[in-house]
Amino acid sequence: SAALKKMTKSNFVSGVGGTNTPYFQAKRSTSQDVSDGSTTKIQFDSIVLDSASGWDSSDYKWTVPSGQAGKYFISVAVEADSSSDNAVCWGISKIFVNNSETDVTEVRTQVAKGNLVDKIHAITQVLKDLSVGDYVQGYGISYANGTPRFQGGTTRMTIFKLVESI
């Protein structure tokens, strides 16, 4: 006869769980002026979280630490803005891995006789298989009247490793 196993918390959750580490998030604390229509590296100047100390502030990149190869969620959110009110017509966010563009999201307004918007949010989100030593950077583009910029506070990069098994 088959024995039944008593249902306890430890039996029920056995094999469940894990941690999403390493994890990282950075943002622009102030606006970053950019050249109109030029692909520009986002100079993240405020580190919110960095569980593995993978951030290099001299080159604005996050590097996969030793022993942490795997699948990662990566998000770059750009708020394209301008020094002039209602002056933005195009915003683009880009993810670069090892200095190569890998993923892009474009957001354009429907412009009718110069009626532009105040801000555009472009967010690129992907899952990537990363190796130890791979590095990730966020780039963006803003097309605008006035001085184009990436808005502080809402322009962010988020990275975390996915739990695959325990």
Explain what you see.
Helices cover 2% and strands 49% of the residues. Strands 1, 2, 4, 7, 10, 12 and 13 form a seven-stranded antiparallel beta sheet that branches. Strands 3, 5, 6, 8, 9 and 11 form a six-stranded antiparallel beta sheet that branches. It is mainly beta and 166 residues long. The protein has one helix and 13 strands; from the N terminus they run αβββββββββββββ.
Question: Which features would summarize this protein structure in a list?
Answer:
166 residues, mainly beta, 6-stranded antiparallel β-sheet
Question: What coarse outline follows from CA principal-axis ratios?
Answer: elongated
Q: What is the chain-wise order of helices and strands?
A: HEEEEEEEEEEEEE
- Pick out the low-confidence regions: none
- Secondary structure class reads mainly beta
Sketch the major β-sheet. 7 strands, antiparallel
Report the portion of residues in β strands.
over 45%
- Percent helix: under 10%
In short:
With 166 residues, this protein is mainly beta. The protein has one helix and 13 strands, in the order H-E-E-E-E-E-E-E-E-E-E-E-E-E. It has one helix at residues 9-12, and strands at residues 23-27, 32-33, 40-41, 46-50, 55-56, 61-63, 70-82, 88-97, 100-108, 120-130, 135-144, 148-150, 156-161.
Architecture blueprint of SSEs:
Layout: H1 9-12, E1 23-27, E2 32-33, E3 40-41, E4 46-50, E5 55-56, E6 61-63, E7 70-82, E8 88-97, E9 100-108, E10 120-130, E11 135-144, E12 148-150, E13 156-161
Antiparallel strand pairs: 1-4, 1-13, 2-12, 3-11, 5-6, 6-11, 7-10, 7-12, 7-13, 8-9, 8-11
